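Customer escalation, tier 2.

The customer says the design service returned an amino acid string that "doesn't look like it belongs to this structure." They asked us to rerun it and document both sides in this ticket. The original structure tokens are below, unchanged.
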């Protein structure tokens, strides 16, 4: 059961936390999820990998998402427990042996993915193809993505017709999926990828019903401003008009970051200050791990002393995490009140994606403290 507080000030005054606290802003999750569901012209699958915290999953489920993109059997088990009645999709070309069978027999999973002929027979051995949809995952990338998701998985577009035909020959329903990347900063990327899909689909003698355009819908961070979700939806809608799907054809999307990022913050504490260096109780081995890899370098933040906001002149600080590793440093300096000191708290917003789901207990620093704010007007730093 997640503890609840009115807002961040009440959390700080009531608990003066030593360890990081991860804060769910329910209203932000509700609004963001509903905007996505209303705007995307198709079926929305939340990508569980982006944030698998049960409190976050419940928010996304309660806001109306009923389909979940799962990368593994444990993610399928998690969704069946936390989001009763939801539909799970096993959308990873790699699994432990036996997991596809269990996914189908125990959890009713019907949707799977392959990206090579060699993945098809082992999958078919474990599932009932007549009761399954198998996506062929196509490699397609775009320079506007902060990270390419086709370097590891995905068949080349010229191999897609043969793969779809092989899927169809098993008796399963063939479908097509791609992932242009994560943090896709230009809506045109989806139009381009849909065009590549269209060309591949024109090479096969049958129509497919489902085209899964993956995740990648971005979120703005300090220093990285991206177009609105509506601009992505409009471009996808117009590109999809050119597709020749079967009559009951549908687009699917697998947003992770777009749904999970805005509504979660991390409240950290200053453990040590040395002139312009601040050492926090969380860092690159904790909830900030994505900063190692991604195009964004900062999260929005605000500071508190004894639960009261700190204002006044600011200064750029180097921020370190608590572990002994010298790479445990945030990639860019952060503007903080010049008088910040040990015991003050810094709340970082927009931290819901690729934070909790990948944090480690390296050096023994780990927090499982997730709370929720009840005040409808509570908003994380933007
Ligand atoms: C198969 C797949 N779907 C969806 C996503 C979610 O991407 P994003 O969080 O950028 O929306 C990812 C991210 O790694 C992925 O690999």
């Amino acid at each position: 059961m997640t503890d609840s507080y009115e807002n961040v000030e009440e959390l700080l005054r009531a608990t003066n936390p030593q360890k990081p606290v991860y804060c769910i802003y329910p209203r932000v999750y509700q609004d963001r999820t509903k905007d996505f569901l209303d705007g995307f012209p198709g079926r929305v699958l939340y990508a569980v990998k982006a944030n698998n915290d049960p409190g976050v999953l419940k928010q996304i489920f309660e806001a109306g998402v009923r389909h979940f993109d799962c990368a593994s059997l444990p993610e399928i088990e998690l969704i069946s427990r936390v989001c009763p009645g939801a539909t799970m999709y096993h959308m990873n070309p790699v699994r432990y042996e036996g997991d596809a069978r269990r996914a189908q027999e125990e959890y009713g999973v019907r949707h799977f993915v392959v990206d090579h002929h060699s993945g098809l027979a082992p999958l078919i051995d474990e599932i009932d193809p007549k009761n399954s949809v198998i996506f062929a995952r196509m490699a397609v990338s775009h320079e506007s993505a902060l990270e390419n998701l086709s370097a590891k998985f995905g068949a080349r577009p010229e191999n897609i017709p043969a793969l779809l035909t092989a899927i169809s020959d098993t008796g399963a329903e063939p479908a097509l999926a791609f992932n242009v990347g994560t943090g896709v900063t230009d809506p045109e990327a989806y139009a381009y990828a849909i065009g590549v899909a269209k060309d591949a689909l024109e090479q096969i003698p049958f129509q497919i019903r489902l085209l899964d355009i993956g995740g990648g819908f971005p979120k703005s961070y300090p220093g990285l401003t991206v177009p609105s979700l509506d601009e992505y939806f409009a471009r996808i809608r117009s590109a999809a008009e050119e597709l020749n799907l079967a009559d009951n054809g549908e687009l699917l999307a697998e947003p992770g970051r777009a749904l999970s990022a805005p509504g979660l913050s991390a409240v950290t504490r200053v453990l040590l200050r040395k002139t312009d260096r601040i050492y926090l109780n969380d860092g690159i081995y904790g909830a900030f791990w994505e900063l190692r890899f991604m195009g964004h370098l900062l999260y929005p933040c605000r500071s508190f002393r004894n639960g009261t906001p700190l204002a006044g002149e600011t200064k750029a600080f180097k921020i370190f995490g608590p572990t002994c590793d010298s790479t445990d440093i945030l990639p860019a300096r952060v503007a903080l009140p010049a008088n910040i000191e040990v015991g003050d708290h810094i709340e970082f917003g927009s931290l819901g994606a690729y934070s909790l789901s990948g944090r480690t207990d390296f050096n023994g620093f780990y927090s499982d403290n997730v709370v929720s704010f009840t005040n409808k007007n509570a908003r994380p730093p933007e």
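Tier 2 assessment: The sequence is consistent with the input. The chain has two domains: 3-23+263-373, 26-260. The radius of gyration is 22 Å. Sent an explanation to the customer and offered a walkthrough call.
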